[in-house]
Design brief:
- The chain is an alpha/beta fold.
- About 35% of the residues lie in helices and about 20% in strands.
- The protein has a seven-stranded mixed beta sheet with strand order 11-10-12-13-15-14-22, sandwiched between helices.
- Helix 20 links the parallel strand 23 and strand 24.
- Helix 5 packs across helix 7, helix 8 packs antiparallel against helix 9 and helix 12 packs parallel to helix 13.
Length: about 650
Amino acid sequence: MTSQVSSPAEEADEVNGSDEALVGEQRRRAGEKEIRRLDRVIIRFAGDSGDGMQLTGDRFTSETASFGNDLSTLPNFPAEIRAPAGTLPGVSSFQLHFADHDILTPGDAPNVLVAMNPAALKANIADVPRGGEIIVNTDEFAKRAMAKVGYETSPLEDGSLDGYRVHPVPLTTLTIEALKDFDLSRKEAGRSKNMFALGLLSWMYHRPTEGTENFLRQKFAKKPNIAEANIAAFRAGWNFGETTEDFAVSYEVAPASTAFPTGTYRNISGNLALSYGLIAASKQADLPLYLGSYPITPASDILHELAKHKNFGVRTFQAEDEIAGIGAALGAAFGGSLAVTTTSGPGVALKSETIGLAVSLELPLLVVDIQRGGPSTGLPTKTEQADLLQAMYGRNGEAPVPVVAPRTPADCFDAALDAARIALAYRTPVFLLSDGYLANGSEPWRVPDIDDLPHLRVQFATGPNHELADGTEVFWPYKRDPQTLARPWAVPGTPGLEHRVGGIEKQDGTGNISYDPANHDFMVRTRQAKIDGIEVPEIEVDDPDGARTLVLGWGSTYGPITAAVRRLRAAGIPIAQAHLRHLNPFPKNLGTVLKQYDKVVIPEMNLGQLATLVRARYLVDAQSFNQVNGMPFKAEQLAGVLKEAIDE
């Protein structure tokens, strides 16, 4: 495990040794700028929500991916459409961790902070370790702007930043000067300062530039003057880094050539991977994909993406509310489509009655919940894992539903295929629990070979399936497959397969309305048995040293937990790790695994929901470690918690 980077300079000294120092001295004598090699870097772009920090970070990420580094990102932005300019609640940031080896998280602390205004500096300075680099847009440090965030004196002058390597750069002024030949107002030219900053950072870390220039030309294809202005600002930032004396060193992070198997890779976010997974599932099942959805943060990107792919037989319906969205999706499932509805926690609450109807009708339906901070509207742009119990039990009556959770942004693709497999094979709604951290974060993804994807084809009912005592052949809509307990899927309009659907309890086999107590008891237990019998892989345990403590996680905690485990093992501390994808039903060997360890620690971004389920199901005294601040765990934080648990 590579040690935490405290600053680019310190890391360079550790990595390169005397040979690199000699090369640097030779470069200085020749009048050239020094180039230092690092194994990883964490950069955070921060500014006002109108400063384009998400776009800047996304472009730096794309170029880093094309260069071949492993990477992980953490976008962080306000929920307001336009928060008050220059205020702490209005700060938007984008953190990128990239390396020449396999990494798992966006990093605990940035080595480099780009602060576009006083609010961005104040909101993020506590995360920057001493010795870190801070690039500050000095043009925004006017008295009024500083007073707005509580600075009585300028932090650039009062000595409070003496422990950091500060680069004061008048980004706005330099950008306006670079664009003086364009027919733009001062305000319009100043908007390109994020591209100037991107150019400067691209020079500092030897990022490719052609992709960004092509992107800008495409993005502003209808405004070529704006496109060329942004490109000019981007190039000016690069040239500024090359010529100014304030940046005497640039850094190289080699491609992660040994971290990945051979294949074709691309950078992908969780929501994009999930969208592609749904499309792949529909093609593997040979079914049209139907999305009935209502826009909600952070799930809306899936609706936006799927709407682009009509050529793959995808139909998207933006409903007037959450209830209409899932109602349309369930109707599409009844009609023979691979049906999906996407939402976040508040939308799940509105969809709960129709999910119960889907349980009763026993139709395949994917309910995608991109979790966010709650309750109610809560923290729309922040992450949380607090919908697990809602997915498990948030319906009236006994209405069991399988629950699947991806662990990384790229894993959202495979999790979507897995959820579709279960829904189609067992004729049931399935919860797919992602979250804001996975949805907006990104990492390299190996594009799979189509031949390696699972076959998901299903057989629709085509005729009678039951013989009455008098020899008459009839269709029973609730006659079950003996292995899966799935009922037949009969597409409306198929001659002879007419049957009744509805929310009132059905008679076993015939599907007729039934109020018989014994029948209701049988149907409730049968629906539960169907979910309990779903085939899911056994949980795998990573325990190379025979540890006595197991850390168990689910969903997006995989990255921070794994990074923390690596740190402990590098320090000679044995610890075992297991991670759940299937939360209902649990893997059949989970109870046996848990009882093999003296201690079980379960970190969650909630108040202990998985721990509650584990303690109740397996009578294991699992220790819960919880965080509900809207941000993912930090590896260093988890490593400390796990070490304390081991030492107790």
